[in-house]
User: What shape does this take?
Amino acid sequence: MTTANNNLLSDIKVLDLSQGVAGPFSTKLLAGLGAEVIKVEPPGTGDSSRSSEPFLNGSPTVENSALFSYINTCKKSVTLDPATPEQAQAIRKLAQDCDILVESFTPGHLDSLGLGYGDLSEENPGLIYVSVTPFGQTGPYSQYKGSDIVAQAAGALMYTIGLPDKEPLKVGGESGLYATGVSAFSASMLALYVRDTQGAGQHVDISAMEVMVVSQIHSSIYAQFGRTPMRRGTNLVRAKDGWVSPGLETGVQESTWLKVCQLIGKPELVDDPRFTTMEGRRANQQDLLDVIAGWAGTKPKEEIYHTLQALRTITGYVATVDDLLVSQQLVYREFFQSISDPVFGEVAHTGAPFRMDGSALELRPAPRLGDHNEEILCQRLGYSMSDLGLTSATKGEQVEPPFE
Amino acid sequence: MNPLSNRPALGGLRILDLSQVAAGPYATMFLGFMGAEVIKIESLSRMDINRGKARPSPDDLRVYPNGNPGEHPWNTTAHHVHRNINKRSLTLDLSAKRGKELFLELAKVCDVLVENYRGSVMDRLGLGYDVVSRLNPGLIYMKISSQGANGPEANYGSLGSTLEQTAGLASITGYDDGLPLMTNLVYPDPVVGILSFGALMTALRRRLKTGSGCLVDLSQREVTTMLLGEAILDFSVTGRIAGTMGNRHRDMAPQGVYPCSGEDMWVAISVSSDEEWKSLCRVMGQPHLASNSRFADPKSRRNNHDDIDLVISTWTKTQDHYRVMYLLQAQGVPAAPVLKGGEVVDDPHLESRGFWDVVDHPEAGTYKQVTTPWLLSNNPRATSTPAPGLGEHNYQVLSGLLGLSKSEINALAQKGVIGNTPTD
Assistant: This one.
């Protein structure tokens, strides 16, 4: 049985000024481990991801984005504009009392508003100030804008993805930005551990481009060793209801090949010199895939996956999102957790990315825009909404996203 | 100036690293960069698969520096040189009684153990978490596995490419024809490596508070599934199943990669606002397009995306891919060249940030090494030490850490428990 283990970071307060995907994903993970995360959003429109498709009940409102709902679980939302002096003062007060501040503005912007690392660390030397940007705090591209595809391009990740006769292809969704968020999370935990053991806070600089260069894993070293990695074909075979990679071209023992030939009803292939050795199967991969395709096309993908894995092959099947929720392995591990949302009903969320003592990720619905203005700005800091020049209408208001 | 500056972030921590392939070695590589002492354990009969074969065949030569495997091929493969930097190498036969004893002695004096064997290999060897945690209750035992420590598929084999499938990532990666594609780069492995590092920091912080170690169970498939979390929410509420959409974006339009001058050169552009669209039109020398109602807002631009792509491609085709970035970014439009592995090592921005470490490997030569996906203002990276030769630190570890005598160590080498030449 998994239980929410909310004591790992229950002593930690996070002030999250970041927007979009990467920064907020890192603070989602911190919140999931028990930290209090106060999310500061622009009054009116809120975090830019509130305007992102897909929307969970059709109408594009700031409370309705699947992306926002996913990456902002367990946070508190206040609406403050750092460019308005009295609201910047409220941010400064919140920063005095927090352990980790995460931001994603263009480098130098918060400094110009008196909210840079130098300003805030003077008042709070233990502060860990995490900047999550497309290209990092220094260097000739530091003022450049980014996006998921821009990061995957600049970091030499996407050049080798896709088919040889087509253009380079990005990893789907917001994968590059999620990885950047993972990096910001890990670096935040590193800086926290260093503060616990050495005493001081510091400025952490996360560049999405660099996260992608780390994630391209071998293109840079191959190139230096004289090899040019290229886009290449796929080893997927069509099953009755989707796609599988049979995985017979690598690491399969002779005895396994015998069983595979029986399984697919082609016993005569046992002695076919194209396939009897691993080297042969690799060299004749396309012939092998064609042979398998005849059999695979009549079988459900998951059945192929389980049947071949039982023969100790390294087989995969392409799970779509509906498959994931019913995967026997993910269900057994209780990986998905359901949140009951007053508007959307039951919503499935991914759970803990790692487990200690069986702990789960703490999950509560993402906040509505300005949900915690009263609690944080008024009760905790002692402001009235009018002191800050905020109208109470900012709280939880349904606003059409700017682009529609 | 902070008086505590420049101390290694993780100085004094000792890591026992049994991990292989990519995810685990990446996590321990980061630990090494931040100043931890990483002892990498392999056996002479089963080296880290990153080291390649003891006697490579002509087909395998591509992974060696300029195709030359040198005298000790297992010390010079690209994967090993790159992923096992900042580690010490100890060979130990974990199936031998004395090998197990020495392993457990080491586990007593380490803070963290990292392994990524299939399912229960360590339990079968009698070296699982129950055993080592009894000897060292403060030990953090990190188990990185493809499917997690338990469950019906815990013993299934996997590769980065199969994880991309079973975790759903392939289902949203591909051109607009719907054919799912994998990354050719085992994308989940480095991402898992980065997350594993954070998981270990979380466990270490927990140990500071509680005094005790723990088992950290990390499933690569689960971590990879987190990369499409919003699609899972969307399916659970609306029943929509996310598919492939090429390089396009749900909100931003236009977005894509466009051909540039030169062989297989491309630039990525994404436009997130009407203002950026107007700037793009100006830079392309087509300011009139900015006022065309067919492209006036994101929705119209998504509907007429093919037409826009044609206009952009016509412009980029004659341009250098870096130049397109400079021109567009100067006007606030997100863009970047689609860099190749050989280009990214020469990129001026990364150079100016000191991202690469220039490493002089005694057998593989001098090269630029990928470092960490973060920069800390007070605790810079440790100076890199090249990836170790197989068994290079046998004496140093066994004598220095466990106090074995020279003759004991020689006897171990005689029996093949340790060594520096693989057995096959």
Remarks:
- Chain B touches chain A through 158 residues (CB under 8 Å).
- Residues 188-210 of chain B form the longest helix (23 residues).
- The mean pLDDT of chain B is 95.
